[in-house]
Structure formats: C-alpha cells, structure tokens
Amino acid sequence: MIGILGLHGSSQHPAFISEFLVRLAPERQYRSPKGPFADGDGFTFFKRRTDRSIPLDEIMALARQGVSADGFVTVSGLAEILLVGYSSGAIFSSALLAVAPERFVGAILLRPQPISDDFTFPELSGKPVLIISGLHDERREPQHASRIAEQLTDANAALTHHQLDAGHAWSPDNRDLLIARTWLDENFPPSSKS
Predict the structure, then answer these.
(1) In this structure, is residue 150 part of a structural domain?
(2) Is 192 within a domain?
(3) Does pTM surpass 0.90?
(4) Nearest-angstrom CA–CA distance, 49 and 83
(5) I need a surface site. Which of 77, 104, 155, 158 has the fewest CB within 10 A?
(6) 158 near 135, Cβ under 8 Å?
(7) Is residue 72, in this structure, part of any structural domain at all?
(8) Number of domain units in the chain
(9) What is the pLDDT of residues 94-144, one digit of tens each?
C-alpha cells in the first residue's frame, strides 16, 4: 500500500498535518516529521529570507538532504510514498518532488506557492498532483497557485487544481478534506500495492 509523508507549515508542529492525514486516510501508514528549524512557536522545513522570499539554492539543497540515505524521506516498509504538504510544507514538498521524482507517486499541495516564478520541474510523466488553494488566501499572491499549476503542467504532471472560497486556513466546510479524499481514492485506491 502507498504510504504518506506529511509536511506541516511554518511555525507548526507535526500534529497539525497528522490530524489531517488521519482524517484523510485512516487506513494508510504515514509519517509526519518535524521541520529541522525552530520558527515562532513551532518549526519549519526551510528558512525564508528577511523579505519573505524563498532561497532557491538553500531549499533545493535541503530537499536533496531529505531524500539522501540518512534523510527523513521514509515511510516504514513502503516503497511508494505520496507527499502531502500544507503551506510551507507544500513548498518543500514541491522541492522534494523536483529533486527526486522517482521517490514519490504524487503529491497533494495545500495552499502552495511556487519555489520561484521561473522554476522548472523535471519530467513528471503523468504523476498525479492535486493543488488546493484559497481564493482569499492572505498569505499568498493571487497568481501563486496558478503559476505552480502551470509549472507542474509543463512537466507533464497529471494536475488537478481546486480553488476554494477560503483563506490560508482550512476551508470551514471541510472542502479541503473532502476534495483530497476523493482525489486520493480515485488516484490511489486503498488496495494499491507498492
């Protein structure tokens, strides 16, 4: 069965994404590591610059470290891993997918942002990717979700993009969860074997 690697957002703890994953797919194994950097009241997987921009070289180096032999990209006993990232965890999931597409069966990117406006993913050969963005996201520019969607489409990912009537937080009507669960069951039924 396909396992899930869940990545929390900035200033958060693994429990944030773990709670979502348990509701999303209670029958699947998952891992939700803690970001390596202290950030506010929690942790993060990479540090932004003081102007809030993303340091491309640094995030890609951290992603390569994450998929290295002693990195954190493992889900016990499972060869196939789905990335699920929220906010900065979605950004870092994009970096992991870019540096090691062969390690992941796909990704769910919740409130993502492009690593850079001109970022290029490697060939993704129909790999399923779901983006769920908020139309009123106070922490993202209006073009962010559509730009990363274009970048993934250019890499031949099998992209699905939903824009919700929501901000940066979860949609109050559970639409994030319902859309992600439907997409997961359609693309990776529980009986999927590694």
Answers:
(1) yes
(2) no
(3) yes
(4) 25
(5) 77
(6) no
(7) yes
(8) 1
(9) 999 999 999 999 999 999 999 999 999 999 999 999 999 999 999 999 899
